[in-house]
Specification:
Helix content is 49%, strand content 11%. The protein has 400 residues and is of the alpha/beta class. It has one domain: TIM Barrel (Alpha-Beta Barrel), CATH 3.20.20.150. It has a five-stranded parallel beta sheet. Strands 1-2-3 form a three-stranded parallel beta sheet. Helix 2 links the parallel strand 1 and strand 2. Bound molecules: D-allose and zinc ion (3 copies). The site of D-allose has 10 residues, from loops. InterPro entries: L-rhamnose_isomerase, Xyl_isomerase-like_sf, Xyl_isomerase-like_TIM-brl.
Length: 400
């Protein structure tokens, strides 16, 4: 098994070292009922309020030890802004998970029909900026470092909006929000090529996100959502570039087959996740601690807590595999252009079954050996279903 590295013992050590520092953030919206644009299938155990989201996130963290923070969505989780901070603080203590990145909402309000931070109306832009600044205040009150900016703005038809004027408007908006940050806070700019807009989105790719981040100020970085690329795009190369430019803020992890499917990380193409993680373990250096690994998935068919545990476990396994690559040996083979040997060394790490080493790591860290099995045995989901079923049944009729 060891043509990728030195010894079985060395492998275990690398896995342990990698996992000790690996943390991945859970999305609050991944625990509540969500669906597709065609409707939603309600789950009886889905979280119906902020406390239940914290309870679920706390459960995932208790089982995996790797997800101590939960991303909050301002409109859905802290609708009263900083006034809700006290409640969040008490939930953090009660459930053992802290608030993570703060996500403003620039896509739901009717006023954003033609855009938010890049809307042709100065008044609406100002309202969107005000919401983002309020989100920064929420983050300050919760000691959250990151404001995650997903800007859904765009246009559906050629000629219907000015691509160029919207660049100016968005740059100005982002700069104003950046100025509201505390020195230790960051603004993460997420890009996406389409959806909900279908002709262009204002932040369509990593080049645009990078330039918006640069013009906003030094505390702005790029957020890579793995599902926000065209099919053939080489995501690990983007990651390598962003590291090179010291501009990688973090990730929204998920997998996809077609578009922004938000499926379980590594369920379709685990090799791609491995390749992304390899760029990080080999190239992040002292940037590593500042890369926010976050999950952006909301499962409408899989059980939510189950799916999140599965995701965290998958992330740990793929990260551990990436850590197995003997980087010095690989560099030597690359320099000598021993192509097949280099590729085999790389692939060898990917194909190594790290599950026993990961399970061993869990046991030595006082965590359940098999988090999914422990979840099933605990009856947590069944209890949640009993407590929440009536409230969730209500959400069917209110949707329809
Ligand atoms: C949307 O496609 C983006 O991935 C967003 O990052 C995310 O789903 C949203 O911010 C959640 O509110
Ligand atoms: Zn995302
Ligand atoms: Zn996505
Ligand atoms: Zn997305």
């Amino acid at each position: 098994m060891n043509n990728h590295s030195g010894s079985a013992h060395g492998d275990t050590e690398r896995v342990f070292q990698a996992l000790d520092s690996f943390r991945i953030e859970l999305p609050s919206w991944g625990f509540s009922n969500t669906g597709t644009r065609f409707g939603k299938f309600v789950q009886p155990a889905a979280a119906t309020n902020l406390e239940e989201k914290f309870a679920d996130a706390g459960q995932v963290n208790a089982l995996t030890g790797a997800s101590p923070t939960v991303a909050l969505h301002v409109l859905w989780d802290t609708p009263n802004g900083v006034k809700d901070a006290a409640e969040v603080r008490s939930l953090e203590t009660k459930y053992g998970v802290r608030a993570g990145s703060i996500n403003p909402n620039l896509f739901q309000d009717q006023k954003y029909k033609f855009g938010s931070l890049a809307n042709p109306s100065a008044e609406i832009r100002q309202q969107a900026v005000a919401h983002c600044i309020e989100s920064v205040e929420v983050a300050k009150a919760l000691d959250s470092r990151d404001i995650s900016m997903w800007i859904s703005d765009g246009a559906n038809y050629p000629g219907s909006q000015s691509i160029r004027r919207r660049i100016d408007w968005l740059q100005e908006s982002l700069k104003t929000i950046h100025d509201a940050l505390r020195p230790d806070q960051r603004m993460l700019v997420e890009y996406k090529p389409f959806e909900p807009a279908f002709y262009f989105t204002d932040v369509a790719d990593w080049g645009m996100a990078l330039e918006y981040a640069r013009s906003a100020g030094p505390q702005a970085k790029v957020l890579v959502d793995t599902g926000h690329h065209y099919q053939a795009q080489n995501v690990e190369q983007i990651v390598a570039w962003l590291l090179h430019l010291k501009a990688l803020g973090g990730f929204h992890f998920n997998d996809r087959k077609y578009a922004d499917d938000d499926l379980t990380l590594g369920s379709i193409d685990p090799y791609q996740v491995f390749r992304i993680f390899y760029e990080i373990v080999s190239g992040a250096g002292d940037q590593l601690n500042d890369i926010a690994f976050m999950i952006d998935q909301s499962h409408n068919l899989k059980g939510k807590v189950e799916a999140m545990v599965q995701t965290v476990v998958a992330a740990q396994e793929l990260y551990a595999k990436a850590a197995l690559v003997d980087q010095a040996k690989l560099a030597g083979l690359q320099d000598e252009c021993r192509l097949v040997e280099a590729e085999e060394l790389f692939r060898g790490a990917f194909y190594t079954d790290v599950r026993p080493a990961v399970a061993q790591w869990r046991v030595t860290r006082g965590l359940p050996h098999d988090p999914l099995k422990t979840l099933y045995e605990s009856g947590y989901v069944e209890r949640a279903a009993k407590q929440r079923a009536a409230k969730n049944a209500g959400s069917v009729s209110s949707y329809a």
